[in-house]
Structure formats: structure tokens, C-alpha cells
Design goal:
CATH architecture of the domain at 7-179 and 208-237 and 269-291: 3-Layer(aba) Sandwich
Mean pLDDT: 98
Number of helices: 11
Radius of gyration: 19 Å
Shape: globular
Largest sheet: 4 strands, parallel
Helix content: 40-55%
Strand content: 5-15%
CATH class of the domain at 7-179 and 208-237 and 269-291: Alpha Beta
Oligomer: single chain
Strand order of the largest sheet: 3-4-5-10
Number of strands: 12
Structural class: alpha/beta
Bound molecules: nicotinamide-adenine-dinucleotide, thymidine-5'-diphospho-beta-D-xylose
Length: 327
Amino acid sequence: MTGGAGFIGSSFVRFLEASTEHEVVVLDALTYAGDPSTLEGLPADRVRLVVGDIADDELVDALVAEADAVVHFAAESHNDNSLADPTPFVRTNLVGTFTLLEAARRHRTRFHHISTDEVYGDLALEDPAKFTPETPYNPSSPYSATKAGSDLLVRAWVRSFGLEATISNCSNNYGPRQHVEKLIPRQITNVLDGVRPRLYGTGENVRDWIHADDHSAAVLRILESGRIGETYLIGADGERSNLEVVQSILRLMGWEPDAFDHVRDRPGHDLRYAIDASKLREELGWTPAYADFEAGLAATIDWYRANEAWWRPQKAEAEAKYARAGH
Ligand code: NAD
Ligand code: TDX
């Protein structure tokens, strides 16, 4: 698998280790977002980390030659970074995915591609509609455009070359070990530092939250039982405005509900994401284990409180990037 030293990839490795007998080789470049300590405590005879780039042809070919399946999580994943500099997004998300697809084609390897609901663009705030696998692609940012492009590459490799691949598009994840650049960990660690949370624009933008462990369980289900060539949407009916999320964090951490600031909005900021996951639920029998967002958020807050040594080294650089962007 790729990207296993990142937030969701490491959740998936832990999930595989706990619930299957599979051996896992993690290919991860350990960018600013990758941290080998996310894999600490896992048995060396089950999980091996190879530090390298998914756009490195020779390395990828050698690893794919020995794999029964490729599960592809590695990506440049943060919208704000893609607005500051799209270059690594094109390289990793497009060229990297292409490199993996070519190796999987040569070795006839089962492939699962991890993607995002952002490929569908955004929905209006009061619209009852949700994204389905039939929603047309309409990405807004350099990040989501490169993820959309990578999905289309996978679809073409299925149709033109008979690659045995599936795709999943998931909504916003939360949970332990998420980089402090993302909304929830940024605000939790701000509050721990005595700094007021920051909302982009009005704060009315809606995201559909799912715990990373529920995402991992869904990916394993698709890998084991998904139909080849199909796209599955992953979401847990967790729609909340950013304002609601920030106010939940404030309440759970004992701060006043208005102790936040509005800051410069994200250019091109998507209004609302919402996932219709009925295909995944009905076809593959998946249901989320974390039905209660507030309880999952409280556990996530506890994790950041207890693991300052993990997030502290990231914090100053992430905030310096935000200061430069006016956020
Ligand atoms: P992350 O930024 O936490 O981790 C990305 C990992 O990929 C890191 O370990 C990094 O070192 C690695 N990586 C980056 N470039 C690489 C390269 N060129 N070669 C090898 N490794 C490289 O990301 P995440 O939030 O865990 O997201 C994982 C995947 O899930 C991504 O594909 C993302 O698009 C998708 N996704 C994320 C979310 C979310 O809410 N975070 C939601 C839906 C889908
Ligand atoms: O300080 C902040 N204040 C704020 O209001 C930050 C960091 C974000 N926001 C807003 C922007 C978004 O509306 O919160 C929302 C969530 O922001 P991010 O955590 O940056 O996530 P988002 O842009 O929604 O993208 C995430 O979900 C889909 C992941 O980063 C992507 O990898 C995934 O594909």
C-alpha cells in the first residue's frame, strides 16, 4: 500500500493488522505529512515501511511485482497547500498514480484507489441532494482537480487495459494522527495552546464527517467484495457546518461558544459536501462504527491532549504557512 505513514493510511494499516492476517508493505515518501511514528508498535513481521516515492518507476515496479494488491492512499492532501503551490499535487497525485497504474498493469495486480468526494465539486447549502457515484465530476481546487484526474486515469486503465481496479470517494475524515494543518486538529491544538480557533469566511460551509477507522473498514470491505470497475462512495451521514464543528470543540474543551475568530476565506471555497453511501451500505453491508460524532470528537481531543509530542513538531510550520495565507 502507499501513503501508510499518513493519517488515514496509518489507520488502515492498524485496521488490517488487527482484523486480518495480511502482510503489509508501506511505500511512503515521508513528506511533511508522513511520520514513521504513526506505525510504531506494529509487528515487524507483518508491516514493513519502504521509504520512497510513488513516482519512482523502478522502485514501484519491484514492489508491485511482489504484491497481491495495491491500495493507494498516498497523495498531497491539503487544499490550502495546493492553492499556495500546485506543483507537488500534479506530480504525486497524477504522475504518482500513473506510475502505480502502469506497474499494476504490467503485473496484473488488483488495485484500489483512494479518492475524495471533492472530485464532485460542491452542493448548495439548503439543497437536499447528496453526491452519488453518478454525480458529474466538477473539481474546484488544484488538489481536487488532481484527485479527479487520478480517478479518471484509474477508470481508463480499467476500460482500456482490463485492470482489476475499484475506486472509493470518501468525505472528510477525523480522528487521531491527523496533521495539524487540517480543520479539527488545527483548532484542538490552537485551544491547547491558548489560541482562539479560526473560521474561514462565515463558517457556514458544510463538511460530511466520518471517523478514519470507519473509512478503513469500508476500504477493506471494497477490497474484499467490491465489484471490479466500480466506484463506491464512503460517508457516515455526518453533515455539520464548520461553525458547528468549532463550537463543539470549544464546548468539549471548556471554552465559551463565541471564543473564535473569522479569518480570510479560502479562495474558491467549496460550500457543502454530502455523501449518499447507500451503494456501499446495501451492496457490501458496511455500517459506520462511530455513529456519534461528538463522542468521536471528544476521543480525538483526548488523543491530541495526550500526544503533544506527536503534533508539536508540526505546529509552528503549519501556523507559519497559515500566517502567510492570511488564515
Ligand atoms: P496525509 O497528507 O495525512 O498523508 C499522505 C501520505 O502520503 C503521507 O504519509 C505522505 O508522506 C505520503 N506521500 C505524499 N506524497 C508521496 C509520494 N510522492 N510518494 C509516496 N508517499 C507520498 O493524507 P490523508 O488525509 O491520510 O489522505 C490519504 C488519502 O485519502 C489521500 O489520497 C486523500 O486524497 C484521501 N482522502 C482524504 C480525506 C481526508 O479527510 N483527509 C478524505 C477523503 C479522501
Ligand atoms: O483553520 C481552518 N479554518 C476553517 O474554517 C481550516 C484549516 C479549515 N477551515 C475550513 C475549510 C473547510 O471548509 O474547514 C473545512 C475543512 O477544511 P480542511 O480540514 O482543510 O478540509 P477540506 O478542505 O474539506 O478537505 C478535506 O476533506 C476532503 C481533506 O483535507 C481532503 O484531503 C479530503 O479530500
